[in-house]
Design brief:
- It is a single chain.
- The chain has 20 helices and 41 strands.
- Strand 19 and strand 20 form a beta hairpin.
- It is elongated and about 120 Å long.
- The two termini are 74 Å apart.
- 36% of the residues are buried.
C-alpha cells in the first residue's frame, strides 16, 4: 500500500536537516521505500497574489472583462474570462514569464505579452487548474481561483502565501507494517535508521472538567471489537479547517470537509489510528445521556452511509449503534444520519480497535472501502486508541472551540498484555552473518521501542504496542537488527564455481513449445482471468454446464472458475475488433472442470481464435492448418474429423462448421466457427473461428521429430486438378494418392474452387505432387506411370473428373 506523506509534517516529529532526496534515500535503504518525490508549487514561479480593484466590460467580447489588479504598489490591466470576478477579490496572477496550462490542459506554456480582442493584457488571472492547484481549490468551468481568505498582501509570491514550501513523498509501506502508515510511524523509523531525535509526545489525557453529559459504551461483540473509547464534546463550532490542516490533508490525498471531520482524518494520517465522529444530538437517547452499543448487524438491517448509498447488512458485519439503529459500519464508514453538519454543536469522537478479518470481509461484501478500512484490515493495536482520541480532543479545543462534556471513556474486552519472546543474540549474529556486538544489537532493538530484560544468552524482549501485529517470533528481531544495521552494509561475495541450474518440469517445457509455435505462426498471446461470471458463460451458451462456484468471490464478475478458455478469447476479440478488423490470438492456461467433494481438476489447454472475413470458411481452414503445424512440430498423430462432439458442453460452434480433434480415438478438443447467436451475445461483428484442446492429450502419442536427410536424387513435380463431389475431403484424397505408389512423397492442396464452370454440389481441387525414388532419378516415363495410377485411383474411388495434367 502506498501513502502520500508531507516531509514538513514528518519533520514535526523527528529533527532533521536532511534534504528531501537524502531523507528518501536513507529511509528507503532499510525501511519504507520512497517511490517518488513531489515538490509542492514547483511551477509557481512569477505567480503572485493580486487584488481586483476594478472590473469593466470588454468592448469587443461579451464573455471577457478588463480587470485592474493591484500587485504591490502597481496596478495591472488584464483581460479575463472568469465568471466569478468581484471587487476586492484576491486572485492568483501569472506575470509575464510564468508557466501555465491553458484551461488546465496540455503542456506548460510560458506566458508572453498579448493583445486579446484588441486590448493589451499584462498577465493572466488564473484558474486553479491552470497552475496545478485544482485539488486545493476545486472550481467550476470558467471560474478563477478565489484566495480572498489568504491573509498575505497583494504582490506576495503565491507559493509563499500558500506556504507550499513542502515536498510530498509517495511511499510504499509493506502490509505487515501498519505502524508506518502514519507520519509519527515514519518519523519513528527515520529517528532510528538515521540516528535522529524523535520528537513526538502523546497529547494530554487528563483535563479538569465538570461533566455535563454522560455516555454509556457497551461491547456486545467482543471477538470483533476489543476496545472502544469515546468522548463527548460540546460548544463545537463547525466551519472550514484552517489552511495548514487543509493543505496537509490535500497533500495526503484527502479532501477537506469541515474542521470536525478533518480532525479525524488528520489524526488518522498523523498517528495511523482511524477515528470517527458523530453528531451527538442525532443519536437516540436523552439530551445529555447517550449510548453506544457495538454489536453485529441484524439480518437485512439497512443503513445509509456517508457516501449516500444504502447498504443491506447481515449478521457477520459489525456495526456501531445508538442502542437501537446502526450509525456506522465498524471500521468501514459512518452513517449519513448521524454525520456532522454546520448545525452540529455536540459531538462524540470514537477511537476503537476492530478485528482486521471482520473489517476486510465486510468491506468486500459491501464493495465499500475507505482509508479507515484499509488500515484496520492490516491489524491495529488496542493501545493506539488513547493517543489518537487525546489528539482529536486537543485539536477540537484548538480549532473548533470545543469543551469536554465527559472524560475520555474507555471500554476494554480484556487487559492488554504485551508480546514477549526469548532472544539469543548469538543466533541473530549467525543468521545475519556479520559481526555485530551484543550491545549494538540491543541498542538497535531498544531504539526501535523494544524492551530487553535478562542477561547473557537468556534475554527476553518485549514488543512495543505499535509492532504487536507483525512481530511473531524471535527471528523477527534478527530481521529488525539486520535492516536497521543496513542490508547495503552486508559484505558481497561473488559465488564461485558453476551456477546450479534447476530443471524445468515437462509441463512448463510443453507450454513454452506451444507458445513458440503459435507466436511463430503470427498469433498474439493473451492472458485472461481464470474466474468469470455466470452471465459471461451464458453468452457462450454455457449456462447449463456444471461449473465450480467460488464461495467468497471478490465480485460477481469473478464468481466461477472457468470451464473453458474460449469465452474469454471471445471477449478479447470483442475488445479488439474495433481497432483491427482481423487478428489471431491464443492462450495457454488451465481450465477447471468441477468434481464432487474435491478441488477441481486443473487441465492445461491450448486455445486460439481468429476473426475477420470468412465467406468460404477461410478462418476454419486457417486454424486447421495451424493445428496441422503444431502436430507436425511435435510429431503427434492427431485426427481432425468433421463430426458431432461426444462432449455435450461444447456448444459454441455453428452446426456443420466444426470438427473434433482426436488422438488415438480419444476426443481431446474442438475446432469450429462460432455460432452467430454467440457472436451476437458478445457484440462481435466479424466471423470468428476458435480451437481448444488438451495440451497433454494432444501430444500423448507424439513420436518426436527425427532428422531425415535430403533425397540424393532430384524429385519429379506434377500438378493435378480435378472435380469431385463437394463432400469429398482433402484427407480422403491424400490417402488415395499416397497409397497408389511408394514413390509419392507429397500431395499438397493449393486451391479449392466452387462457382462458374463447376456444377452445383461439386468442387474443383488442385494439388502439387512430388515423386521421389531414393535409389535413382525417375524418368519422365516412370513419373507418368505413377501419375496415371493416381488419376485412375481418384476416378475409381471418388468419381473424380481430371481437368488438368
Amino acid at each position: 500500500m502506498n501513502i502520500l506523506a508531507s516531509y514538513n509534517w514528518i519533520k514535526e516529529h523527528v529533527r532533521t536537516n536532511l534534504t528531501p532526496e537524502e531523507f528518501a534515500q536513507k529511509i528507503s535503504l532499510s525501511g519504507p521505500a520512497v517511490e517518488r518525490i513531489y515538490p509542492q508549487g514547483e511551477n509557481l514561479e512569477n505567480i503572485v497574489i493580486g487584488e481586483i480593484v476594478d472590473i469593466d466590460t470588454h468592448p469587443n467580447a461579451d464573455k471577457l472583462s478588463i480587470v485592474k489588479v493591484r500587485i504591490g504598489t502597481e496596478i495591472k490591466e488584464i483581460v479575463c474570462g472568469g465568471i466569478n470576478l468581484k471587487l476586492k477579490m484576491k486572485v492568483a496572477v501569472a506575470q509575464i514569464g510564468a508557466k501555465v496550462r491553458w484551461h488546465g490542459e496540455g503542456d506548460l506554456v510560458e506566458l508572453q505579452p498579448a493583445k486579446i480582442r484588441g486590448v493589451e493584457s499584462h498577465g493572466m488571472i488564473c484558474a486553479a487548474n491552470e497552475i496545478g492547484l485544482f485539488d486545493y481549490f476545486p472550481h467550476q468551468d470558467r471560474e478563477i481561483m478565489d484566495i480572498s481568505e489568504i491573509e498575505a498582501p497583494p504582490g506576495t509570491p503565491l507559493r509563499e502565501a500558500l506556504e507550499l514550501n513542502d515536498v510530498v513523498f509517495d511511499i510504499e509501506v509493506t502490509t505487515n507494517r501498519p505502524d508506518a502508515f502514519s507520519m509519527v510511524g515514519l518519523a519513528r523509523e527515520a529517528s532510528v535508521l538515521m540516528d535522529l531525535p524523535f520528537l513526538w509526545k502523546p497529547s494530554p489525557t487528563n483535563y479538569q472538567l465538570q461533566a455535563t453529559s454522560s455516555l454509556d459504551i457497551t461491547i456486545d461483540a467482543p471477538t470483533l471489537c476489543t476496545r472502544y473509547q469515546g468522548v463527548v464534546l460540546k460548544g463545537v463550532q463547525v466551519k472550514p479547517s484552517p489552511w495548514w490542516m487543509q493543505k496537509r490533508l490535500l497533500a495526503s490525498g484527502i479532501r477537506p470537509i469541515n474542521n470536525v471531520v478533518d480532525i479525524t482524518n488528520y489524526v488518522m494520517l498523523e498517528q495511523g489510528q482511524p477515528m470517527h465522529v458523530f453528531d451527538a444530538d442525532l443519536l437516540m437517547g436523552a439530551e445529555n445521556k447517550k449510548s453506544i452499543v457495538v454489536r453485529t448487524a441484524k439480518k437485512s438491517e439497512k443503513m445509509e452511509a456517508l457516501d449516500g448509498n444504502i447498504y443491506e447488512l447481515d449478521e457477520s458485519m459489525l456495526v456501531i449503534t445508538d442502542g437501537k439503529k446502526p450509525v456506522a459500519i465498524a471500521g468501514v464508514m459512518g452513517g449519513e444520519e448521524s454525520g456532522v453538519t454546520r448545525d452540529t454543536t455536540t459531538i462524540i469522537f470514537e477511537s476503537a480497535t476492530f478485528d482486521p478479518v471482520g473489517v476486510r470481509k465486510t468491506a468486500r461484501k459491501l464493495n465499500l472501502h475507505s482509508d479507515s478500512s484499509l488500515r484496520f484490515e492490516k491489524g491495529l493495536s488496542t493501545e493506539a486508541t488513547t493517543a489518537a482520541i487525546s489528539r482529536a480532543v486537543e485539536l477540537a479545543i484548538k480549532i473548533a472551540g470545543a469543551e469536554l462534556a465527559t472524560p475520555i471513556l474507555d471500554k476494554r474486552v480484556r487487559p492488554y498484555k504485551a508480546k514477549s519472546f526469548d532472544w539469543d543474540p548469538e543466533v541473530s549474529k549467525n543468521q545475519i552473518g556479520v559481526e555485530i556486538s551484543t550491545a549494538g544489537m540491543k541498542k538497535i532493538l531498544e531504539d526501535l521501542g523494544f524492551e530487553i530484560s535478562g542477561s547473557g544468552k537468556k534475554l527476553n524482549v518485549t514488543v512495543p504496542y505499535w509492532r504487536d501485529h507483525d512481530i511473531e517470533a524471535s527471528v523477527d528481531f534478527t530481521e529488525e537488527i539486520a535492516r536497521t544495521y543496513g542490508y547495503h552494509k552486508l559484505p558481497s561475495v561473488i559465488p564461485s564455481g558453476e551456477l546450479p541450474l534447476s530443471l524445468l518440469s515437462k509441463e512448463l517445457i510443453l507450454e513454452d513449445k506451444y507458445r513458440e509455435i503459435l507466436q511463430g505462426a503470427g498469433f498474439i498471446e493473451v492472458y485472461s482471468y481464470s474466474f468469470v461470471s455466470e452471465e459471461f458463460l451464458k453468452k457462450g451458451l454455457w449456462g447449463g454446464v456444471p461449473v465450480l462456484k467460488v464461495q467468497n468471490p471478490l465480485t460477481l464478475d469473478l464468481a466461477i472458475m472457468r470451464p473453458s478458455i474460449i469465452p474469454s478469447l471471445l471477449q478479447v476479440v470483442k475488445e479488439n475488433e474495433i481497432e483491427v478488423s482481423s487478428g489471431s490470438i491464443f492462450e495457454v492456461a488451465n481450465i477447471y472442470p468441477p468434481r464432487e467433494n474435491e478441488l477441481p481438476f486443473e487441465h492445461l489447454v491450448v486455445a486460439g481464435a481468429v476473426w475477420g472475413e470468412s465467406g468460404k470458411g477461410e478462418l476454419f481452414f486457417k486454424l486447421k492448418g495451424i493445428l496441422e503445424l503444431i502436430q507436425s512440430r511435435f510429431g503427434a498423430k492427431a485426427e481432425i474429423i468433421n463430426k458431432e462432439s461426444d462432449v455435450k458442453d461444447l456448444l459454441l460452434g455453428h452446426p456443420g462448421r466444426r470438427a473434433i480433434i482426436f488422438v488415438d480415438k480419444k476426443e481431446v478438443g474442438v475446432i469450429e466457427e462460432v455460432h452467430p447467436v454467440v457472436l451476437q451475445s458478445f457484440g462481435i461483428k466479424n466471423r470468428v473461428a476458435v480451437f481448444q484442446f488438451d495440451a497433454n492429450d494432444f501430444v500423448a502419442t507424439a513420436f518426436g521429430i527425427s532428422y531425415k536427410g535430403l533425397p540424393e536424387f532430384p524429385p519429379v513435380r506434377r500438378d493435378i486438378s480435378f472435380i469431385v463431389d463437394e463432400k469429398v475431403t482433402y484427407e480422403n484424397v491424400v490417402d488415395i494418392i499416397k497409397n497408389v505408389d511408394e514413390h509419392v512423397q507429397e500431395a499438397e492442396l493449393f486451391d479449392v474452387y466452387q462457382g462458374k464452370g463447376v456444377d452445383v454440389g461439386k468442387k474443383s481441387m488442385a494439388l502439387h505432387l512430388v515423386f521421389v525414388d531414393p535409389t535413382k532419378t525417375l524418368t519422365g516415363e516412370e513419373a507418368d506411370v505413377i501419375f496415371n495410377k493416381i488419376v485412375k485411383a481418384l476416378e475409381a474411388k471418388v468419381d473424380a473428373q481430371v481437368r488438368l495434367v
